[in-house]
Amino acid sequence: ENWVIIGVVCGAAVLTVGILIGHFGIAKSGTSAPSWLKDVAKDVDESLIEKFMSEVDNIQIQENLRSLTKVPHMATTAGDEETVQIMLKRWQDPETGLDKAWREEYWVYLSFPDKNNPNTVTVVSPTNTVLHTIREKEKPYTPDQSDPEVVQPYAAYSPAGHVKGKLVYANQGKPSDYSELNKTVDLRGTIAITKYGGAGRSAKAINAAPYGVVGVLVYTDPLDMNDGLMSDANETYPHSWYMPPSGVERGSYNIDFGDLLTPHLAAKEETYRINATDITGIPPIPTQPIGFEDAYRLICELGGEPAPDAWQGGFNCTYNFGGPGFKPTSTAVKASLSLFCVAFHVSDVKLDIYNYEEVKPSSNVMGFIRGSVEPDRYVIYGNHRDSWVHGAIDPSSGTSVMLEITRVLGKMVKQGTWRPRRSIIFGSWGAEEFGLIGSAEYTEQYFAALSERSVAYINVDIAVFGKKLHTAPVKAPGHEKSVYDNWLQYTNKTSPTHGLIPRMGYLTGAGSDYAPFSHYLGITSMDMSYTYDKTKTNARIYPAYHTAYDTFDYASKYIDPGFVGHQAVARTAGNVLIRLADSLILPLNCADYAESLEEYLSTALNLYEQKLKSMNISMGKNEYQPPLLYHVFFLRPLKVRWINDQLMLLDRAFLDPLAFPDKYGFRHVIWASSSAGKQTFPGLADAYANAESSGQASDWDKVHYHLSVLSQAILGAASTLTDDMPIKEWLKNFH
Amino acid sequence: ENWVIIGVVCGAAVLTVGILIGHFGIAKSGTSAPSWLKDVAKDVDESLIEKFMSEVDNIQIQENLRSLTKVPHMATTAGDEETVQIMLKRWQDPETGLDKAWREEYWVYLSFPDKNNPNTVTVVSPTNTVLHTIREKEKPYTPDQSDPEVVQPYAAYSPAGHVKGKLVYANQGKPSDYSELNKTVDLRGTIAITKYGGAGRSAKAINAAPYGVVGVLVYTDPLDMNDGLMSDANETYPHSWYMPPSGVERGSYNIDFGDLLTPHLAAKEETYRINATDITGIPPIPTQPIGFEDAYRLICELGGEPAPDAWQGGFNCTYNFGGPGFKPTSTAVKASLSLFCVAFHVSDVKLDIYNYEEVKPSSNVMGFIRGSVEPDRYVIYGNHRDSWVHGAIDPSSGTSVMLEITRVLGKMVKQGTWRPRRSIIFGSWGAEEFGLIGSAEYTEQYFAALSERSVAYINVDIAVFGKKLHTAPVKAPGHEKSVYDNWLQYTNKTSPTHGLIPRMGYLTGAGSDYAPFSHYLGITSMDMSYTYDKTKTNARIYPAYHTAYDTFDYASKYIDPGFVGHQAVARTAGNVLIRLADSLILPLNCADYAESLEEYLSTALNLYEQKLKSMNISMGKNEYQPPLLYHVFFLRPLKVRWINDQLMLLDRAFLDPLAFPDKYGFRHVIWASSSAGKQTFPGLADAYANAESSGQASDWDKVHYHLSVLSQAILGAASTLTDDMPIKEWLKNFH
């Protein structure tokens, strides 16, 4: 009985992430779009979209980026305030501004290194003689990189503290890594060095503490980011896009998003705050990120057994577990490490962390274009404004694109040639780097109005991750091939409804400001960027990410020379924005939600059904499984009443504020994050993995609980799509 | 800053409970209604309402009641199924039925006494000789009252068990009562006898257990219900509406509403269930209700010190605390108590409770009239169907009224003379007596659709509590005076907007099926009944409530002879229903929500502001207090965009699913239940009372937390009423 509902969702429903498919796919091919879609398509003025596209200017974007990245603009610093002023000035411009622009401030809990007492990581002898000091700041290659406002690399929300111990290598700091390491090494009192990837930043420390590890170092392995390249003499930036040896990825070491002291409440000055000691999800032990130049020196000198093959990285040495600690001095010591020669194998690694926390006012800058017909329906477009350093790519590439979109739209509004049907809200969020704080506080403050009124949220954070690679450039967008065709070529899937279409990822994580909109409010959301061909490099992200090298120089030389990638993103995002704002019927397509649920269901049945049956937990009746689902799917679409509120509110119908008590802010039972690594219903997948590993009856109960949550949510969502009656009787029309 | 929002709500907002005022008050007087209200009033066809009113027939209601009360119809019994069939037959009638009617079943956790092992309460000697046995069933005065299906009086969800101990008198079983009693009596191992009132049913046992009390008896004191009258020879039923000496109020002894094994999930057959041992809010010790005939024998023989004056009741003896236990035999023993003469003062009271729990299918019967213009907007009208015994008044008076409304409306629909603009859903809920189960499961199952689509919920449970009293009859409605004028005369208030108007209560509790709609879903709700003049009697409810005497005979003789009270309720409720379903603009009025918030604020400031200021917790700035609020209130109403979705969704905007973790199902931060006894914001009032009593810093933190929740909810609700932008910038239009 449960799963017939999937069929109804299929037959009646809406797309969350497939807006582009609807337009670049359906609208172009015209083969499978129902006739009503064509009838209402004229509500969007295609010539206006053409005009918008033609006016989006790559040089304007380049100049936006130049001015946004003049100085480092970490949240709540003077540089951040400069960017606030840039946004306000642009959005209040009488020629090209919006109807209204203003600032909204929140008092948020942030963590900083102490300028007067920089964090240090040293190798010390038993008598505390400093044998080696890890580089404090990254090596500058351009004047802006030596700006005194470049913040020292640090792990935000790591506690201050002074710890030392023998070094061990813990791979990626996953629970399984520490468990493996613990088999042969006594971890009590050790310092663990871990590489980025595989586990969340703070998880590397949270997972370590139960073993008695007292401090954690984190570095980026050249194999994971640089395709093995390590030398700044000719291989890395400033010679390519790769991370230089002293580069360090900064980051927020927390799990929950939003201000950590005001869960579920907007962090206004007078708001109730929890005690800082009650914060969860941050490192319990001092933690510091370092460059691979230093990591190399430490890891290649580690003693003990060789680590497993899967733990090896890009250094030209064997990665050992650590004795714990370093090898005996009898082993070959490189010249560059001569300092280590003194009692090297008995030395400790010492962390002196002086991070401090402070509640400071952080600003969102808001912009508004009033809708002509439905002013109280919102299409929201946002990106954060704060960076770790200059943030040319993260986030200023996205902000530059947003400013170009608002310039072109603002001009049309000021000239009186266009006003959207629905209102458009632009958000330039503050303090995203510390955990999506500006956007999360905004969604908490205006929860009810945004829930009821928001049509969709568009996020463009890092607009261009890489347009071409040093080795194999992707064809420039808008030249030989359209964005759509390019996309289709590089990442695609075969949909039962649409045939071959570009593949979209699912927004199941909390990687940028879409998370509070999608997971907390249940607003249909998309996150858009232009990215490089991932088959050509191991780099999991552009290599200057969160380093001092993410500057205008880097962006314009190695990420998007000529800014045509940015231009393509601005055109695409603006196109979607205009269609969402202007279409009489919202351009949200049922078919992809249905397909996603169908895929999730089929995965879940494959993975879990047999075992659950043996435990007397039913996943639903056989007659409603795939063949019938597709049947219902194809028969029903024209029968439903397609009205905008149904389309708009469908995602909201999947919210259950109680389903994930341990996942802050996650309420969406389809798209919530999951640690089980299965592409299926997240609550079910996590509960199943947990129950299978523990074998405890109470954990199997949670599997059963999540099946019930899911069945109720899907039925509930389907009920919102019937034309009149609640679902149960309505279904009888089809039997 | 916080409280300016109140002004906006005032200026922009909506009435929750004042629908009738809007029509009987504003529309009639016409003096203060804005012109748009008159313009759209023609959307409702007044002649149709007149026609409806004239067709509502008191004799039909009487006959409905007769057929519904033929047999006892406790939830899930054969009698309950008979009423299901009556509802289905009536709602599926080809001449006078609805568009559609069907059954929805839930598998719910119920508690029953064991027919084969009736619960017994006895007085036993130290050697377990039974000295006296409490009456097992009520004394029948009519044949239907001796129906074998009349369930033995019991406390649903009291655990089974066999306990005995010395008797003590614990007044109403409030925490303060046990605390007072415990000052002079060692309560360990005792049985407490308590009277109804002052604390929830299960609370009397929950409050007792920590003192070591092992069992609880509950009775209705004649002073509280019978104005002191006790004799069935000439005073009580069958001679008047008063409760006979053997009458016992049955009831559900639980706190949370909805199925206790499936919190937040609809209780379908395959749904995940918690362990019964994890249920909270039910008696931890055996509990049994008894008649005052038996309570008299027990209480008047109690030894120990006299209880305080406030604890005394209607018996012609002094209520003592209990020695613990009875007086020494040397005291005068009445003839009727001769059995007690054997070692009376050393005897125990013994409870042998055989209640058992069972998961059984309970049915809601649903009816549907499809809306012509907005079929996916719902006006919901409901009442429960299950009773404890025959339930002539509770709930069949309401069901009889509902059936008459559906007969008249159904006939117009079947004849094609009327179809409402919006859809109407009728709900005949199952298992309400066990804790609003049918309605709560329905709201859980269809949470999303009902949240998004419901315009309002109308509840008519006990339609007529009493039309006239034996002493001072209220004028029959519809004769000398209109319902409105009658109401205005007996309970009124002076509103700044409307002047003298009928006073409405607030739906802050969970007394009937409106609770899941109002508190869990945030749907604007009303609960309606015709009641007696409360200045003329102490009876807190009609005296046959939940007894075997709540029969057709009782209803037709003592509650509403001629059924004209029922007729008045059917006309009034139907009138409201038609207006909600047919009005182009929803007939919900902002002014009363604003006034209620204003009253709450002013109460909160009076009660709490000074103390909180001394603790450095701000309640908001002075400039936004009452004078300005009223100013804004009067200036703004015409500026807002009055659209139905705003009106419909305003209550939803006050929901916070996390604000009351200890109050199951309560999410509405304005109307949630409160134990502080202050007519102001419930979370604030409770937190304040708690903090003041404990003095702990963490409890004062909770006060601060609730202020923040409240401020955010009110600001959030106000944001849903602006015409375009979120609230903060919008407010600047008025400064």
From TrEMBL, chains A, B:
Residue intervals of the Peptidase M28 domain: 364-556
Ranges where the PA domain occurs: 163-251
A cellular component annotation (GO) from this entry: plasma membrane
UniProt topology in membrane: Single-pass type II membrane protein
Keyword terms of this UniProt record: Cell membrane, Membrane, Signal-anchor, Transmembrane, Transmembrane helix
Main localization of the protein described in the UniProt heading: membrane
SUPFAM superfamilies in UniProt: PA domain (SSF52025), Transferrin receptor-like dimerisation domain (SSF47672), Zn-dependent exopeptidases (SSF53187)
Listed InterPro entries: PA_dom_sf (IPR046450), PA_domain (IPR003137), Peptidase_M28 (IPR007484), Peptidase_M28B (IPR039373), TFR-like_dimer_dom (IPR007365), TFR-like_dimer_dom_sf (IPR036757)
Self-association state and partner proteins as the record states: Homodimer.
The name this protein goes by in its record: Uncharacterized protein
